[in-house]
């Protein structure tokens, strides 16, 4: 006896016309059920099947139970068709369900080399197939048509899209693969023009940009280029003040024989639109800035009303707080439509005082932070006041108090427009009547059965004895529901209520929770992996079969996949989300990122620096120069399919040549935030006037993110450092010229609490770097090294920032080789060098600190003549102050700065003394003040600084050549004229041009 139900078909007996069969079916009703079978099998979890199935073995067969079971099975969402059959078995009956299972989308991918545009992601999005949703055969055709339309719009009219449907019957999933053969891209040809363009065809083509100027070659068709062409033509009309112009593409005709696309443009230029201000003088630029019809390229009442509001705010910012702005549209005349803004400015005011009285619970500073009304200041010459600002401030202050339990607070503002009897001066008094504070006496939570009530209470803002507010109730609702969602209760609901308690201004709060059914993870299913090894992604998954289904943890896992840096896209969904089952498949579909990335950068520096010269000793202080720089990074992502990255970096400029090879293994030992890096480096630097530094290094580094702002690094480096192009080689003992091997172990900790690392306005930045070089680590020079840095950023006003930075460093040598003092045992490239745009602007690049004063020994010779070239030091102390403020518009910022400090010969010589004792003294504090300009760009601010060094050091230099220096003997009775030292000094004025903030 068969019963059946298809999608949308009501339950019914499928009776036969045979009287005999009818009698037989009637005989089966009431018999005990001996077995329940599913053909070809059930895709349901055992618990979900039990919940959907009304029939039970041993119970008598009832028609209504068959119908109820079919309804329950369909409600799970995992079946397309179900037919029930009953078959006699002895004195009992076997019930058999023949089912047609539903398929679900497990992922979509696009294969084939498709030239951009469109991107692979755009093609996948255009398919409009939802991960985890039920799959229908029509979905494939719709996806192909949609992809083909996207390819057509990008000029790939001959593209072919071939779909492949891969099915996994075990989990009822289909994976869709679309193979794209793009063919050749079509080119534009001269458009067909409809309407009255009022422009020549050549002018229209130039505006669209569809044809290359001069050579007149047609460009290839892309959707973006077509859209930009229309916008370019609209911009052409806008420049002619035709703001009502319309340009529409009626159609794009494709000529397959010549592979050409001819657009049909419908053009309505409309009249010229002139916007002017009457009764007040307003520049055309100001009108264009504040009246949005220019930005929107359209004229309608909403935009004109917004322009009226913007102009009103503009004049109020200038002190015209009673300004009245209205507009009128004059009838078109002679192809000209005029829009007039009638502006009555009224009297000009200045806000000289904004006082707050009556506040006891909150400090005045806390309240001012939430106010728009502001007295006149350096950056706000007229102050800020308007009736709208007044209402907003009253509302903000009242909300602040209400959110802290002051339900009866009253805020009023009194404005004196003749403050202290002076016309045009405004004094504002904000009066606050706080009223009583309402408190919570008791919090009751009802309906909790499947979670720990203690955990719920921990997330509540409404606690016994705490202030009461509706804001806290709303926050508690969100937090409690979030907790339930994390525990697998997506249908949880909550209602809150409160009532006064026995004590005045006290309340009792009640939360009533409806938990709903708990959902569980049936299994985690992943698709789309090709080069990536499964074990890499498995390490990121902390949801497992049987765990509560938490959407929060589900998206956290998705974020961890993105953090690996090897996936361009990771989609996640719950399969059959609307089906009435408590055990769900969680799906992740991956699109792997391109494995190779190449980045090329170009930059430059302009400042007083120079490369070493072996032919002249005349400019130990360096010379103004220009240093262009080219950099290139080539990275291989997801190396070996385990998420590791290999990067080759190179920098080439006139002052530095650097190459490095880095191997990065993230999540070392599967610990969050722990990375290990292996690096090989070669660096040839010419940024110190005295010598060129060469470094060949291999290092291993482990970094650990301790918290969101704090990271620790541990590093071992082994390097060979040497010097070349030494300006004064004959003055240096051989040990200083000999290459040195440095084996050093170091640790670094960095704490970054800045709001924007590229251009910070508030926060703190700390670093500490401690290292030890010793024979134990393979080094032939031994020293300890410490470098500390602290930077803070404070917002003085909404757009002024005070930035400060202090750096302190010391190198402490020990176990010096024979023939070298402790200070000399530190190789030249390992010493501290300072000065320049990023450290101390009192000096040119790397010109701070000790210099050659003629006491370097010549081998087997006497004391030499001084040359004045920098030699570096074993200690440093820098301090920088910057006041950053707006200068012109939003993108140009001004900076006033003061730098102080120096590089010192040893820690014991560190001094803040202002004056230099003599031309051999360089251990004192050098100061510089100056002004700078910052221009904001997407890659960071472009920086220009002009510094004045207040007390630059003087020194004795040598004007001749190294060969002449050899002829000088200070002990001789007569010396050549060129052996006479020349007093020189670091220039008072320093100029720097670079990218990025100083710190």
Task: Describe what this molecule looks like in 3D.
The protein has 999 residues and is α+β, with helices and mostly antiparallel strands. The protein folds into 8 domains: 2-101, Ubiquitin-like (UB roll) (Roll), CATH 3.10.20; 104-181, Ubiquitin-like (UB roll) (Roll); 187-268, membrane protein fhac (Ubiquitin-like (UB roll)); 272-344, membrane protein fhac (Ubiquitin-like (UB roll)); 350-433, Ubiquitin-like (UB roll); 439-514, Ubiquitin-like (UB roll); 520-592, Ubiquitin-like (UB roll), CATH 3.10.20.310; 599-995, Porin (Beta Barrel). The protein has 18 helices and 42 strands. The strands form 9 sheets. Strands 25-26-27-28-29-30-31-32-33-34-35-36-37-38-39-42 form a 16-stranded antiparallel β-sheet, with no helix packed on it. A 5-stranded mixed β-sheet has the order 2-1-4-5-3, covered by helices on one side. It is globular and about 135 Å long. The model is unreliable at 1-24 and 856-863 (pLDDT under 50).
């Amino acid at each position: 006896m068969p019963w059946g139900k298809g999608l949308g078909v009501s339950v019914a007996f499928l009776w036969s016309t045979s009287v005999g069969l009818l009698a037989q079916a009637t005989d089966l009703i009431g018999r005990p059920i001996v077995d329940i079978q599913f053909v070809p099998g059930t895709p349901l979890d055992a618990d979900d099947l039990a919940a959907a199935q009304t029939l039970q073995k041993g119970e008598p067969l009832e028609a209504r139970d068959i119908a109820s079971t079919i309804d329950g099975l369909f409600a799970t969402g995992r079946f397309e068709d179900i037919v029930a059959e009953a078959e006699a078995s002895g004195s009992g009956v076997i019930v058999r369900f023949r089912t047609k299972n539903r398929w679900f989308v497990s992922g979509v991918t696009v294969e084939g080399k498709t030239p951009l545009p469109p991107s692979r992601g755009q093609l996948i999005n255009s398919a409009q197939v939802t991960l985890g949703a039920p799959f229908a055969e029509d979905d494939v055709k719709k996806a192909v048509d949609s992809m083909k339309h996207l390819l057509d719009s990008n000029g790939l009219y001959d593209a072919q899209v071939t779909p492949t449907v891969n099915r996994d019957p075990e989990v009822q999933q289909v994976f869709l693969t679309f193979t794209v053969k793009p063919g050749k891209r079509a080119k534009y040809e001269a458009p067909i023009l409809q309407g009255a363009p009022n422009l020549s065809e050549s002018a229209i083509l130039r505006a669209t940009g569809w044809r290359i100027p001069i050579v007149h070659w047609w460009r290839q068709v892309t959707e973006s280029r077509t859209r930009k062409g229309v916008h370019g033509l609209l911009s052409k009309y806008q420049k002619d003040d035709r703001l009502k112009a319309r340009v529409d593409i009626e159609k794009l005709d494709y000529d397959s024989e010549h592979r050409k696309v001819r657009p049909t443009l419908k053009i309505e230029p409309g009249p010229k639109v002139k916007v002017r201000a009457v009764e007040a003088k307003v520049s055309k630029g100001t009108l264009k800035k504040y009246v949005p019809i220019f930005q929107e390229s359209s004229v309608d009442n909403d935009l004109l009303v917004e322009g009226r509001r913007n102009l009103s705010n503009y004049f109020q910012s200038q002190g015209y707080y009673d300004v009245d702005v209205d507009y009128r549209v004059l009838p078109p005349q002679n192809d000209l439509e005029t829009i007039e803004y009638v502006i009555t400015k009224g009297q000009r005011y200045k806000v000289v005082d904004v006082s707050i009285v009556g506040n006891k619970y909150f400090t005045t500073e806390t309240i001012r932070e939430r106010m728009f009304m502001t007295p006149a200041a350096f950056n706000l010459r007229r102050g800020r006041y308007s009736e709208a600002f007044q209402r907003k401030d009253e509302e903000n202050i009242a909300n602040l108090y209400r959110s802290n339990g002051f339900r009866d607070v009253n805020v009023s503002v009194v404005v004196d427009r003749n403050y202290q009897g002076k016309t045009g001066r405004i004094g504002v008094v904000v009066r606050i009547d706080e009223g009583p504070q309402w408190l919570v006496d008791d919090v009751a939570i009802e309906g909790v059965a499947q979670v720990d009530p203690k955990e719920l209470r921990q997330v509540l803002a409404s606690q016994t004895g705490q202030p009461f507010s509706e804001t806290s109730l709303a926050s508690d609702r969100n937090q409690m529901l979030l907790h339930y969602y994390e525990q697998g209760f997506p249908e949880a609901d909550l209602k809150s209520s409160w009532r006064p308690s026995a004590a005045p201004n006290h309340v009792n709060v009640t939360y009533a929770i409806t938990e709903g059914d708990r959902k569980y993870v049936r299994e985690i299913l992943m698709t789309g992996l090709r080069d990536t090894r499964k074990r890499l992604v498995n390490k990121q998954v902390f949801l497992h079969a049987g765990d509560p289904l938490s959407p929060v943890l589900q998206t956290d896992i998705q974020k961890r996949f993105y953090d690996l840096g090897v996936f361009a896209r990771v989609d996640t969904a719950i399969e059959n989300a609307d089906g009435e089952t408590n055990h769900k498949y969680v799906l992740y579909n991956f699109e792997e990122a391109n494995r190779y990335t190449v980045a090329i950068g170009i930059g430059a520096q302009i400042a007083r620096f120079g490369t070493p010269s072996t032919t002249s000793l005349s400019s130990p202080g360096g010379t103004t120069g220009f240093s262009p720089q080219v950099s290139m990074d080539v990275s291989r992502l997801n190396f070996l399919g385990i998420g590791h990255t290999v990067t080759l970096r190179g920098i080439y400029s006139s002052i530095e040549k650097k190459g490095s090879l880095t191997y990065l293994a993230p999540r070392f030992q599967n610990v969050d935030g722990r990375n290990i890096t292996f690096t090989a480096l070669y660096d040839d630097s010419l940024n110190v006037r005295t010598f060129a530094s060469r470094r060949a290094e291999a290092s291993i580094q482990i970094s650990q993110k301790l918290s969101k702002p704090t990271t620790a690094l541990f590093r071992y480096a082994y390097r060979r450092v040497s010097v070349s192009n030494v300006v004064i080689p004959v003055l240096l003992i051989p040990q200083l010229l000999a290459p040195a091997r440095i084996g050093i172990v170091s640790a670094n900790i960095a704490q970054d609490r800045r709001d924007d690392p590229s251009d910070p306005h508030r926060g703190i930045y700390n670093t500490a770097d401690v290292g030890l070089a010793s024979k134990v680590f393979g080094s032939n020079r031994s020293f300890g090294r410490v470098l500390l840095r602290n930077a803070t950023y404070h917002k003085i006003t909404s757009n002024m920032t005070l930035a400060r930075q202090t750096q302190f460093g010391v190198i402490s040598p020990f176990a010096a080789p024979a023939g070298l003092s402790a200070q000399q045992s530190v190789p030249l490239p390992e010493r501290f060098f300072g000065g320049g745009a990023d450290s101390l602007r009192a000096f040119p690049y790397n010109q701070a600190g000790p210099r050659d004063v003629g006491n370097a020994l010549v081998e087997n010779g006497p004391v030499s003549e001084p040359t004045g070239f920098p030699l570096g030091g074993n200690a440093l102390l820098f301090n920088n102050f910057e006041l950053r403020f707006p200068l012109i518009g939003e993108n140009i910022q001004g900076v006033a700065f003061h730098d102080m400090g120096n590089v010192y010969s040893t820690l014991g010589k560190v001094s803040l003394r202002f004056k230099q004792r003599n031309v051999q003294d360089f251990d004192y504090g050098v100061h510089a003040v100056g002004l700078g300009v910052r221009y904001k760009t997407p890659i960071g601010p472009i920086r220009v600084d002009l510094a004045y060094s207040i007390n630059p050091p003087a020194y004795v230099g040598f004007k001749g050549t190294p060969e002449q220096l050899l002829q000088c003997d200070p002990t001789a009775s007569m010396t050549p004229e060129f052996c006479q030292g020349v007093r020189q000094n670091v220039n008072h004025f320093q100029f720097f041009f670079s990218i990025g903030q100083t710190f």
